[in-house]
Design the sequence.
């Protein structure tokens, strides 16, 4: 399996974050084409033709959404550089290594949406990403890309960096960041309808995750057909997979959609697993965990997953983020960690996280510490199942508790003996409370 | 733009207003869906999820939506009372119930608790229950207690403090399982604090004194208007079996008070002031005839020359009209009692406490202006007394204690007052009606005409209206007939009638006595029925 870079193209160059390096390699060519050579409508056509889909995990057609939004008065573009899903570091790496690609993508999107302002929401605790992005913005502004009329369109776009406290509820979605920009609590707002645009200070805004924007510059400079040539028919292009955990070389690997399985990514790109024996792959966007051979038959192709492609592989492909664990880790420990994290990171406004994950985490903790006495296992499983369907059932605003419950459920299903052993009276409780064992050093591929 | 459109609910066609929320539409058609975080006077976060219903799309696929924050569009197909939807709502309530300390038997809010009603009607029959979270009981103010164990984190109080009162003395803090209502060090000390008791759906914010009140289901209520200031909030007075007014709570009136009222009006109505008269003074040997004897004496004195009448802004339009007519008959001079001043307060949510501490100052001015009558001011009256132009003065319709006029007994020959206030200086006293005992209309500061209804009987058994009718030498009649006469006389009142005013009040969704304006509105639509099991 080979890497095929589009989003992360040029990431290996020394000083890839510098404006002159980026410019020398064709950078800002896409933005210039969008602002000078073609009009906003043609930009939307081009993106629609390329079939680009949102990389945040929803996989909605970017061009189609833009076309729908074109009639509305979109005031600003909000860029989500706050990924808080466990195991995912794609947007952060993009901001740290290729900040100008992100800025260029944001310029193109803002132009297509006729928005005059871009809010870059970046996690305040990512110091490096913030400083690199801040520096890149200053460079781009000095070079005249930001804040001044560009090309024949004469459209000027202003940028504003908005550090937000992280981590956020992982699935807060489009309606969370406007709340934070308004200095409100980190809570996603309930939207009136799936396609309703979020509002910021009363005006409609469009929210995109950083990676989605990162695909745009090359689509504009090389044309939609070049992008379309990669990947599948419904899901063209590439996907950047974050791999971490017990692999020899954890990192971010961009491959062509449909060119292999997650097992191939682990073997060929991430250097294989740390220890021999059966590995466990956790899909951080809410799919049942896979063990052993099953990882090699799980394709890196959204079309093959039940969400978004409606394929046979159960669960949500999301952004293709996996965490690998070897046999030294008890799935029930991971499950307990995951639930506790979910309960802490959820915003707590709807009962899903507040009463669901928090209660379940407490029950698992109790199970680990004291065995089955005092834990009503059928009730626990019933509540877990309820939580796993809570977003679809409308019982939570975002998918945050659902993802946590799906992952927990998957982990408990993969090792049902964990739960039953805990459940047997007289069996020593599992006491592995130490941190996860990880690779000695982390080799990010840049 | 709103338009009437057709929608389908559970297979039946209904008319609905496009753009209106699904919840309002359902309630309008009498379909019960619980809504715990939603309050029509606040923003709608849709966090409690207890109002979920199914919407069917063009492909006949069903999607779950929260009724509170989704709006009606033409051709919408809703499934509300099917088993799936009911089960989802039951699950949502089960989750909320998990943290709720179920001490209903000793809870102040029991019997008028939205959460209790919701769970009884839509919740799970059985629920594994485990209490976690805080269980503190904090005194936030003299009439406000926060019982953390009952809180279901709906956030209504925090939104109220943010959007309506602007004080932020209650706010949501923490995340995930640790989210909680946090109280400012000062407690809650603003003038709208009583509304928090009304809007808390789970009995977490309660009035400690409500434990001494008779049970909710033994009370009935009367719709009236608060006479505490010129704002004239729509309120309802809850009355116990003995005819005692036990609490005042706001009704919804979008043009006047929205959904709220201030604590001054709510808690300090002074209707039970200890100095209130039951019989005229000086006392008459026969209590049966005391009232008539006193009126006859009063009329005789006022028919003498140099009489004056000091009109009060506490009189209803009807009473003021009759008194003016009587005064003109006697040839008495008219003076206007400048309304007592209060501290004006405006809140970010648009609610206002008026600077004028009397309910009908605007109405009285309007009545005088429309009748082309020049009435002197308080200063004119003092001047007239000093110049010996006033021999006897009728002072009438005092409000709560404190409305005492600056007149010295020595300056005039004879003062007749018919109220408790300033009473000790008068030669003849006739018991008056409090605004909770009046029947008539008030014109508030923003020129809104509203009906006041008697919530209780006067101690003397006679009302101001009867007194004014007697003074004007008229036969006994009702306030409605006097109002009809006013409507005939004055063009600015054209088109009004008591029936119309009552109908207007009813279209403002606003019963039995329970909860705040929102619960009241649910009860009016028979969506929430609090019944006395004993009856």
Sequence:
């Amino acid at each position: 399996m080979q890497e095929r870079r589009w989003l992360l193209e040029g990431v290996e160059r020394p000083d890839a974050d510098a404006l002159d390096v980026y410019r020398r390699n064709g950078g800002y060519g896409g933005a210039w084409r969008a602002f000078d050579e073609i009009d906003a409508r043609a930009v939307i056509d081009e993106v629609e033709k390329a079939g680009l889909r949102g990389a945040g995990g929803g996989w909605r057609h970017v061009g189609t959404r833009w076309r729908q939004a074109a009639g509305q008065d979109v005031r600003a573009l909000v860029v989500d550089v706050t990924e808080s899903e466990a195991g995912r570091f794609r947007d952060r790496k993009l901001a740290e290594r290729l900040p100008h690609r992100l800025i260029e993508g944001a310029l193109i999107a803002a132009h297509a949406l006729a928005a005059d302002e871009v809010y870059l929401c970046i996690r305040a605790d990512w110091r490096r990403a913030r400083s690199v992005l801040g520096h890149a913005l200053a460079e781009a502004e000095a070079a005249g890309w930001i804040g001044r009329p560009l090309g024949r369109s004469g459209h000027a776009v202003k940028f504003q960096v908005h550090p937000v406290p992280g981590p956020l509820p992982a699935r807060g979605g489009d309606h969370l960041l406007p709340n934070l920009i308004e200095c409100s609590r980190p809570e996603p707002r309930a939207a009136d309808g799936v396609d309703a645009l979020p509002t910021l200070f009363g005006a409609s805004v469009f929210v995109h995750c950083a990676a989605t924007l990162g695909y745009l510059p090359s689509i504009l400079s090389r044309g939609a057909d070049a992008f379309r040539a990669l990947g599948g028919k419904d899901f063209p292009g590439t996907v950047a997979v974050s791999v971490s955990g017990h692999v020899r070389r954890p990192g971010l690997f961009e491959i062509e959609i449909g060119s292999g399985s997650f097992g191939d990514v682990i073997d060929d790109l991430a250097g294989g697993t740390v220890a021999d024996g059966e590995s466990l792959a956790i899909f951080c966007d809410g799919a049942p965990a896979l063990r052993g051979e099953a990882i090699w038959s799980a394709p890196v192709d959204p079309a093959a997953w039940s969400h978004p492609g409606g394929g046979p592989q159960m669960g949500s492909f999301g952004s293709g983020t996996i965490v690998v664990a070897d046999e030294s880790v008890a799935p029930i420990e991971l499950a307990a960690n995951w639930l506790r994290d979910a309960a802490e990171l959820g915003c707590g406004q709807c009962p899903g996280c507040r009463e669901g994950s928090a209660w379940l985490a407490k029950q698992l903790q109790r199970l680990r510490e004291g065995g089955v006495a005092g834990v009503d296992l059928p009730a626990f499983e019933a509540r877990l199942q309820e939580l796993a369907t809570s977003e679809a059932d409308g019982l939570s605003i975002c998918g945050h508790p659902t993802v946590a419950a799906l992952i927990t459920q998957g982990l408990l299903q993969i090792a049902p003996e964990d739960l039953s052993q805990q459940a047997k009276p007289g069996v020593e409780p599992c006491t592995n409370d130490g941190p996860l064992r990880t690779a000695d050093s982390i080799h990010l591929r840049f | 733009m709103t338009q009437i459109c057709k929608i389908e609910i559970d297979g039946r066609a209904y008319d609905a207003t496009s753009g209106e929320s699904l919840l309002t539409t359902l309630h309008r058609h009498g379909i019960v869906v619980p809504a715990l975080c939603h309050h029509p006077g606040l923003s709608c976060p849709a966090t409690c999820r207890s109002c979920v219903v199914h919407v069917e799309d063009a492909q006949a696929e069903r999607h779950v939506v929260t009724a509170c924050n989704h709006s009606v569009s033409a051709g919408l197909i809703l499934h509300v009372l099917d088993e799936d939807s009911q089960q989802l709502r039951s699950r949502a309530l089960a989750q909320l119930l998990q943290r709720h300390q179920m001490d209903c038997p000793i809870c102040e809010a029991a019997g008028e608790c939205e959460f209790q009603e919701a769970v009884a009607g839509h919740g799970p029959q059985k629920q594994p229950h485990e209490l976690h979270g805080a269980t503190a009981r904090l005194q936030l103010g003299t009439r406000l207690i926060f019982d953390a164990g009952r809180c279901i984190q709906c956030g209504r109080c925090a939104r109220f403090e943010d959007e309506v009162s602007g004080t932020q003395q209650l706010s949501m803090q923490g995340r995930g399982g640790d989210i909680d209502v946090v109280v400012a060090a000062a407690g809650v000390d603003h003038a709208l604090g009583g509304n928090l008791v009304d809007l808390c759906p789970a009995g977490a914010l309660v009035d400690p004194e409500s434990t001494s009140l008779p049970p909710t289901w033994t009370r009935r209520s009367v719709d009236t208007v608060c006479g505490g200031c010129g704002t004239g909030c729509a309120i309802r007075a809850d009355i116990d079996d003995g005819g005692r007014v036990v609490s005042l709570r706001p009704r919804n009136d979008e043009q006047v008070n929205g959904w709220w009222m201030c604590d001054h009006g709510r808690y300090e109505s002074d209707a039970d002031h200890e100095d209130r008269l039951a019989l005229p003074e000086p006392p008459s040997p026969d209590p049966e005839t005391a009232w008539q004897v006193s009126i006859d004496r009063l009329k005789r004195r006022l028919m003498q020359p140099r009489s004056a009448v000091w009109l009060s802004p506490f009189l209803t339009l009807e009473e003021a009209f009759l008194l003016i007519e009587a005064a003109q008959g006697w040839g008495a001079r008219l003076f206007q009692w400048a309304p007592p001043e209060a501290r004006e307060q405006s809140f970010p949510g648009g609610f206002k406490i008026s600077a004028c501490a009397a309910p009908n100052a605007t109405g009285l001015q309007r009545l005088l202006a429309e009748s082309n009558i020049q009435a002197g001011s308080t200063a004119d009256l003092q001047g007239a007394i000093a110049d010996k132009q006033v021999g006897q003065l009728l002072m009438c319709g005092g409000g709560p204690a404190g409305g005492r006029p600056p007149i010295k007994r020595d300056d005039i020959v004879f003062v007749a007052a018919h109220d408790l206030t300033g009473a000790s200086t008068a030669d003849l006293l006739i018991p008056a009606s409090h605004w909770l005992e009046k029947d008539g209309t008030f014109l508030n500061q923003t020129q809104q005409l509203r009906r006041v209804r008697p919530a209780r009987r006067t101690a003397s058994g006679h009302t101001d209206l009867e007194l004014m009718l007697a003074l004007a030498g008229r036969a006994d009649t009702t306030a409605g007939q006097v109002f009809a006469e006013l409507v005939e006389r004055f063009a600015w009142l054209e088109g009004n009638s008591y029936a119309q005013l009552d109908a207007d009040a009813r279209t403002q969704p606003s019963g039995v006595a329970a909860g705040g304006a929102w619960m009241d509105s649910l009860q009016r639509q028979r969506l929430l029925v609090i019944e006395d099991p004993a009856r």
Remarks:
- The longest strand of chain A covers residues 74-81.
- Chain A has three domains: 19-228, 238-325, 331-423.
- Chain A touches chain B through 36 residues (CB under 8 Å).
- Chain A has 17 helices and twelve strands.
